[in-house]
Backbone:
């Protein structure tokens, strides 16, 4: 069967062909034409018009054409129901409907900008929606972590969140976290509280507040910087390390960043500090 819609698709006019090909008619053909030609050409080619006003396959209320196809063809796959919310949010600027909405909009807008041939855009879009469907069906509960340490850190925080604090004693999670961070200082430690809070599904401000209670009233970032500087002081005693190497080994973005943080905390630059060590 042939289907026809407006040219220059972004969301619904890519998502709907994917849904039709995968769940309604795998032999379906699609045409993208100027808006004012859709109805005329649909009659000439015997094609079903979609995602335009005043046709059967279109928006109804707050729902988009993707939703209508699901209902019309009784598609009961739970993964498709998940996809429908994301597609609807991206197609109607309802980014509050699901956390994936903004990402789908960004990818779709970028692809439409880069690819000017609608049929090439559709081919690439089919791959995107295949991936999104696989995520919805099999991977919704999977989380990406930057490295094994972040995974361990997440486990520690999860243990804390499951505990009910009954005293003012330092909780086990804080002691364990301190040991883990100290162990990692030797390995070019680069951590972001925002990334960690995202992986935990906990607001960053909450973690920041709880963290400072058990780490000398220091924020997560200040505590990490303090440990980096302490490690750099040990490395400065070894003349085999250049200042640039020490900056790298202690997780700073570059030597100038290292110099600035070091001077703020110690009161002198690393070069002056090292010179004073040699003069003793």
Residues:
């Amino acid at each position: 069967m042939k289907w026809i819609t407006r040219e220059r698709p972004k969301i619904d006019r890519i998502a709907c062909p994917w849904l039709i090909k995968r769940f309604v008619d795998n032999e379906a053909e699609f045409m993208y034409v100027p808006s004012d030609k859709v109805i005329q050409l649909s009659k000439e080619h015997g094609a079903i018009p979609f995602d335009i006003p005043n046709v059967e396959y279109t928006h109804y209320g707050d729902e988009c054409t993707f939703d209508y196809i699901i209902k019309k063809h009784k598609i009961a796959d739970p993964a498709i129901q998940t996809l429908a919310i994301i597609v609807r949010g991206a197609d109607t600027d309802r980014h509050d409907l699901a956390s994936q909405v903004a990402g789908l909009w960004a990818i779709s807008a970028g692809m439409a900008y880069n690819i000017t041939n609608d049929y090439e855009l559709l081919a690439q879009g089919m791959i995107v929606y295949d991936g999104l469907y696989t995520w919805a069906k099999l991977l919704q509960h999977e989380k990406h972590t930057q490295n094994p340490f972040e995974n361990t850190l997440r486990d520690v925080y999860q243990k804390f969140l499951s505990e009910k604090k009954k005293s003012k004693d330092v909780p086990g999670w804080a002691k364990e976290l301190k040991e883990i961070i100290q162990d990692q200082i030797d390995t070019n430690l680069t951590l972001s509280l925002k990334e960690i809070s995202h992986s935990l599904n906990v607001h960053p401000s909450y973690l920041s507040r709880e963290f400072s209670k058990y780490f000398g009233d220091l924020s997560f970032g200040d505590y990490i910087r303090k440990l980096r500087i302490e490690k750099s002081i040990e490395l400065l005693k070894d003349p085999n390390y250049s200042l640039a190497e020490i900056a790298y080994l202690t997780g700073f973005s570059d030597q100038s960043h290292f110099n600035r943080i070091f001077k703020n905390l110690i009161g002198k630059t690393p070069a002056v500090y090292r010179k004073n060590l040699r003069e003793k």
